[in-house]
Design goal:
By secondary structure, the protein is mainly alpha-helical. It has helices spanning 4-18, 24-34, 39-63, 68-88, 104-113, 116-126, 131-150, 152-187. It starts with a helix and ends with a helix. Helix 3 (39-63) runs antiparallel to helix 7 (131-150) and helix 4 packs across helix 6.
């Protein structure tokens, strides 16, 4: 059932995790190295991955013998470290140099947009929100991703290096708070 509060919260969580605005420096670098990023293709592939994980993710982790609360707690650690990367400007998750050559799908659609953080968030959100609200949040986020990818050059000029750095720090702090909330709300179910 559509719930505006759940939709808003799910959209904001995914927006912070996908961090398409904070990824502009990486995207500009990929575009420079690869020549071009196809906005529509990257957005559709990421959308497909995320929706498939929304529908099948719980079954997959269930098949592996893991409950949603355990996955959410584990996911809170991934989100925590992603937030530390954004806030402190350090690199904890390494990118494969070979993957930079196939830019639109790898690394843009996967794992930059639909990566471990977004998949973890989707499963974690399933522990708290209805599937329809999460699906709509994914669609909204992929619309934003498409717009950012489509207008990447304009955004780079408009924001400048300082603006991009500030946005990355702000979304890092938001993601850090989300990770802490996710941890505290799911850890109690494990004991």
């Amino acid at each position: 059932m559509l719930n505006w509060e759940e939709l808003f919260q799910s959209t904001m969580v995914l927006f912070a995790v996908v961090d398409i605005i904070g990824s502009i420096p990486v995207l500009v670098d990929v575009k420079r190295k690869a020549g071009d990023i196809h906005a529509g293709r990257a957005s559709l592939v990421a959308l497909g991955i995320m929706l498939a994980f929304l529908v099948l993710g719980e079954r997959i982790i269930g098949f592996l013998g893991v409950d949603v609360n355990s996955f959410a707690v584990a996911g809170s650690f991934v989100l925590f470290f992603m937030a530390l990367e954004m806030v402190l400007g350090i690199e904890l998750f390494k990118q494969d140099a070979k993957a930079m050559k196939t830019a639109t799908i790898v690394p843009v659609a996967f794992p930059l947009i639909a990566g471990a953080g977004s998949m973890t968030s989707i499963i974690s959100l399933r522990a708290e929100f209805s599937q329809v609200n999460i699906a709509l949040a994914i669609l909204i986020n992929m619309g934003v991703v498409y717009l950012v990818l489509r207008h990447l050059s304009r955004l780079e000029r408009f924001l400048g290096e300082g603006g991009i750095a500030v946005l990355q720090k702000v979304f890092g702090i938001i993601l850090l708070a989300i990770a802490v909330k996710l941890f505290t709300s799911n850890i109690q179910h494990l004991f």
